[in-house]
């Protein structure tokens, strides 16, 4: 018996480090080593540094927006769910890890048995009292099956942590985008209101000229039509401003105080810091969605080890030690020691191909995880490339749009002067007026595009983050 125990101990020592988990090798990046180049990429963000090292508090410079983001990080329900998913994954990992250790329990009980008597006194009743400490079905992890499952649970836990990071970065970007959209629509509303006031003044002037016999009825009708179209825009942008506010409060998860809402225009350069672009090999290893996909791949890799271990024997130990006595008063007296030891070896002989199918399924799952990991990288590369393509042309487009506004403003002023001198019809004034209004609206849209592009760059480059309790 002693020799058998020593042999089991030596075997356990030799096989304790045995594992069938394949060596993990990170797949090569299925994308170019450099970002795209060409006319759209002539202007690029700073190349030195990494976006992951830029905390959002440093990226967002606007004080009001920072407070709104802080409110969202406390109140947003999606982020709460992501944090709870981490807690759940951590608990599941602890449950799986506990299987590496024996489960010890204490028991105390009485066993009573009555049997027909074999003596003249009649039936007899026997009683046995016991108090034991026992372990039940503890599997010795000779071939790494439990450790493989433990590693799989750990990688799934890491995956949920990266998912929370991804959710937080997306939340910061969503709040910023909704905040900027609200500011742009308020700016559009202010433009519509000032345009309406200007057109109303023109309408009254044309109507007065008509009463004096200088302007025609057609001029009055056209001036009124132009004024009413501006009134329509006031109503439309008034609604949009409230819709934007509702959207912002939804993503924040709580009412946003009026004092924190944007007034009108937001200066992009003052509101956000420059985001360093880095190299694809750096960026694609910083993005939390890519890291989450890699942890999923590692988890599938570990599952292969557990599936391989199914082909080998399982050794489980069941035992107990304690005290037993026929009388309760004698339970703790000397001589009442009782113990039991029941090792068990389970050897797979015929499983109807179940173990092989389980291993094949685990290998397929890993192949799927590799494809998903590569697709995540390709998607990330495309998102960064798109953001850089917009970034490279935005200043040029902004300058051209501002020049267009200046030109249409001059054209409108000239057409008004020519109408007042009786050289052109009022239709020319209306055309210039509409062109100016459209150019001003497009300038607001372009400014919003520039601001949101800065936010998008921060997001797709794996923008930095800080933990919040």
Task: Describe the fold and architecture.
It is a single chain. The protein has 11 helices and 4 strands, in the order ααααββαααααββαα. By secondary structure, it is of the alpha+beta class. The protein has one domain: Outer membrane efflux proteins (OEP), CATH 1.20.1600.10. Strands 1-2-3-4 form a 4-stranded antiparallel beta sheet, with no helix packed on it. Helix 3 (63-75) packs across helix 5 (145-211), helix 5 (145-211) packs antiparallel against helix 6 (217-252) and helix 5 (145-211) runs antiparallel to helix 9 (288-309).
Topology:
Blueprint: H1 2-15, H2 56-59, H3 63-75, H4 77-98, E1 104-119, E2 122-140, H5 145-211, H6 217-252, H7 268-271, H8 280-286, H9 288-309, E3 314-325, E4 337-346, H10 354-420, H11 426-460
Antiparallel strand pairs: 1-2, 2-3, 3-4
Helix pairs in contact: 3-5, 4-5, 5-6, 5-9, 5-11, 6-11, 9-10, 10-11
């Amino acid at each position: 018996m002693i020799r058998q125990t020593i042999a089991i101990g030596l075997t356990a020592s030799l096989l304790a480090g045995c594992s069938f988990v394949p060596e993990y090798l990170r797949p090569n990046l299925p994308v170019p080593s450099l970002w795209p180049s060409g006319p759209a990429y002539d202007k690029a963000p700073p190349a030195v540094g990494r976006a992951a090292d830029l905390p959002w508090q440093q990226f967002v410079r606007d004080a009001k927006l920072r407070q709104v983001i802080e409110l969202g990080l406390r109140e947003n329900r999606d982020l709460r769910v992501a944090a709870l998913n981490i807690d759940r994954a951590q608990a599941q990992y602890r449950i799986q890890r506990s299987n590496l250790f024996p489960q010890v329990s204490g028991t105390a009980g009485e066993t009573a048995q009555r049997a027909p008597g074999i003596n003249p006194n009649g039936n007899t009743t026997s009683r046995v009292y016991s108090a034991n400490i026992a372990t039940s079905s503890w599997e010795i992890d000779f071939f790494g099956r439990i450790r493989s499952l433990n590693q799989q649970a750990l990688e799934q836990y890491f995956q949920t942590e990266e998912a929370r990071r991804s959710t937080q970065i997306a939340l910061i970007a969503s709040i910023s985008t909704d905040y900027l959209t609200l500011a742009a629509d308020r700016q559009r509303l202010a433009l519509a209101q000032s345009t309406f006031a200007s057109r109303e003044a023109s309408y009254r002037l044309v109507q007065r000229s008509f009463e004096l016999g200088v302007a025609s009825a057609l001029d009055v009708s056209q001036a009124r039509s132009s004024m009413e179209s501006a009134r329509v825009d006031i109503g439309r942008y008034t609604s949009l401003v409230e819709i934007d506010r509702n959207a912002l409060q939804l993503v924040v998860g709580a009412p946003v105080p009026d004092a924190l809402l944007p007034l009108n225009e937001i200066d992009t350069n003052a509101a956000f810091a420059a985001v360093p672009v880095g190299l694809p090999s750096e960026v694609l290893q910083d993005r939390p969605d890519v890291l989450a996909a890699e942890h999923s791949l590692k988890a599938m890799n570990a599952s292969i080890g557990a599936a391989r271990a199914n082909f080998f024997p399982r050794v489980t130990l069941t035992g107990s030690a304690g005290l037993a006595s026929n009388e309760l008063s004698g339970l703790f007296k000397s001589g009442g020691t009782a113990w039991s030891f029941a090792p068990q070896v389970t050897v797979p002989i015929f499983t109807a191909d179940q173990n092989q199918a389980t291993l094949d399924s685990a290998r397929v799952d890993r192949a799927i995880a590799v494809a998903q990991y590569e697709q995540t990288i390709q998607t990330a590369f495309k998102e960064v490339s798109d953001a850089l393509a917009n970034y490279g042309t935005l200043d040029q487009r902004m300058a051209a749009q501002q020049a267009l506004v200046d030109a249409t403003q001059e054209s409108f002023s000239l057409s008004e002067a020519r109408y007042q001198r009786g050289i052109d019809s009022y239709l020319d004034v209306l055309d210039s007026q509409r062109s100016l209004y459209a150019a001003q609206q497009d300038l607001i849209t372009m400014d919003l595009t520039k601001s949101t592009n800065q936010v998008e760059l921060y997001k797709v480059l794996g923008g930095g983050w800080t933990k919040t309790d």
